[in-house]
Each structure stands twice: as structure tokens, then as C-alpha cells.
Amino acid sequence: MAETMHALVYHGTNDLRLEERPLPQIRDPRDAIVKVELSSICASDLHIRNGAVPRALPGTVLGHEFVGEVVATGSEVRKVRPGQRVAANVETFCGTCWFCRQGYVNNCRHGGWELGCRIDGCQTEYVRVPFADNGLDPIPDSLSYQDVLLVGDVLASGYFGAELAAIRPGDSVAVLGAGPVGLCAMQCARLFGPAQVIAVDILPSRLHLARERGYADLALDAAADDVEARILDATGGLGADAVIECAGGHDTFQTAWKVARPNATVAVVAMYEEAQSLPLHLMYGKNLTFRTGGVDATHSAELIRLIERGRIDTNPLITHSLPLNKILEGYRIFEQRQDDCIKCAITPWKR
């Protein structure tokens, strides 16, 4: 085996470079080393590149969405073994601190969003995964790498959004943003038995996919439709019972609370690059509940089971694929949504 590998490294705002890096090594008995078989580019990677994530460390290999094969484990790893196919969680968590014991793993005192932000991530050939028993889930033989590629981040985020929204059977659910997280949130919202799911976006191709695949019952183009009026009309003049804001646009947070009915829950899982205002004087009488969060990695194993049972399918979201050699081209395609790109999978380095 070679002693170096190819990796995409963050060096500062708008400075990403393909470089050679030493192969990762076991540093802690709870570590695992995973050979990356498939990874993906996330909007969070763009936020880092754009300088919108101050905690991101220059010199770090980017990426946190991946699946692969375990090649080595530390002496205390019990859940996975070399040769096993695994899906990775975006969140690194110890499982023993106060936050982990309460189930708040993305606030772990010894982890959180580490991979591809503060420690080397997966847009490379091999990656070290700390706390591997928490950060990796075995892939059943019946599923491919692509089937579960999005489990640990965008699908987990979509599920967390649906969970935060406190959806009840018969509810009307509005999902703002029909990007990767939003499309996942729509599928996950279905699991809670709503009467209807309403998708809102500005890209007709994504709205078409949401309707065509049955993720949404009603698709609204925010650039052409009066979204507030259409949602009021679709809900008997009440507004949405639950709103999941996945878009992170300059005005989508305002839209989220405006389309919610009084006493509704608004779940915000979007990542914003700019500060948002909370106009309490305007929303005072609506008695809204706001719940925020990014991703909850505790549901990954259950999400894999749901995929295996055919309840969730994220394959339609993976529209493009490029080898690691061309990952910078992949960033451009993903960011510009070229050729209706939703997610761009990155395959191993083409030799």
C-alpha cells in the first residue's frame, strides 16, 4: 500500500487544493480507519470554503458524507471490524459526556461536527473516524454504497427536521427548500402520517422531482407563486401545522413563520451565512414554537433499516458522479446546480 493518498484540503476562504497527504493512522483505541468508497459534496463544504464557518481549521481535509470499508480498528472498537462495509455519521460523539447521555450528541464535549471541519474528513482515499462505535453503522448486504451514502448527514438532517417539527397524523407540513435536506425532510415527514406535504422552492426541476416521486402533494414556486396565499388556501385558511425550513435563503426564515398557522411548530435545520432577524412584534400573537438544529446522528441505524424496507429512497437525489480527481469540477457543478444537480457523488481516485 502506498504511504500517501490524494485529498482535497481547505487552506482558507476560497482556497481548496488537491494534495497528497500521509495515510491516516489509529491514534486512539476507539478509532477506525475507513477506505472511502463513495463520498459526496455538501452545502456545508461550500459554507467552509466561503469562510462562513469560523471554527473550520485551515489545513483540514474537507468532507463528511461518506461510506466505505473498514481497514483497521483500535483495540476498543466493538461494533465494526476490518472488511466490513459501513456508513458514517457526520457527527463525532463520545457517548459518555453529559450531552451524549441526554441524547444531544451534536453537542458532545469531545466531538460535534469535527470531520471535514476540525479534523481530516472524507474527500480523500482513507479517513480516521474517532469513536468508531458511535460514528459508523454496518451496511446490510442487501444495500449498495449509494443506497446509504446520504444517511449520516442530509438524510439524518431531514429526519431531525421532521422530528423537531412535531408532526402529527393529519397535519399539513410545509417544507421550505427542495434541495437535498428538504427532499429528505419531505420523505421523513411522510413517516409521521401527515395529510399533506407542501414543497416550496425556486427551482422548477426540484419541485417537479418532489411531485413526481411523491415526496410532496403540492409544489410551490416561490419565484412565481404567492406562497403565503397558496398555503392558506391549501390548509383551509389556517396555515401549516408544521414548517421545516431547509433552504437557508435570505428570506426563507421569514417565509417559514409567516406560512405557519397560529400555535404551529417551526423547525429550522437550514444553515445561514447571514444573521436572521426575529420580528417578535409581528409574530407576537401567533404563539409559535421554534426548534432549531442541524443533524442528529443517533437515528442513522434506524434510517438504514427504513431504506432497507423501502420506506425511504435517496438515490434520486444523487444526480451526478465524478472521480476524486475531478472533485473541484464537482464543487462547481454542485454549487451552480449545473444540469439540475442535486447531489454529486465522488468515486475513488481514477488511476
TrEMBL record:
PROSITE patterns: ADH_ZINC
Entries under CDD domains matching the protein: FDH_like (cd05278)
Gene3D superfamilies noted in UniProt: Medium-chain alcohol dehydrogenases, catalytic domain (3.90.180.10), NAD(P)-binding Rossmann-like Domain (3.40.50.720)
GO molecular function: oxidoreductase activity, acting on the CH-OH group of donors, NAD or NADP as acceptor; zinc ion binding
The keyword Oxidoreductase is annotated on this UniProt entry: yes
Cofactor: Zn(2+)
Signal peptide: none
Domain Enoyl reductase (ER): 12-339
One Pfam short name: ADH_N
Keyword terms of this UniProt record: Metal-binding, Oxidoreductase, Zinc
Family to which the UniProt record says this protein belongs: Belongs to the zinc-containing alcohol dehydrogenase family.
Protein's UniProt name: GroES-like protein
Biological source species: Desulfovibrio piger ATCC 29098
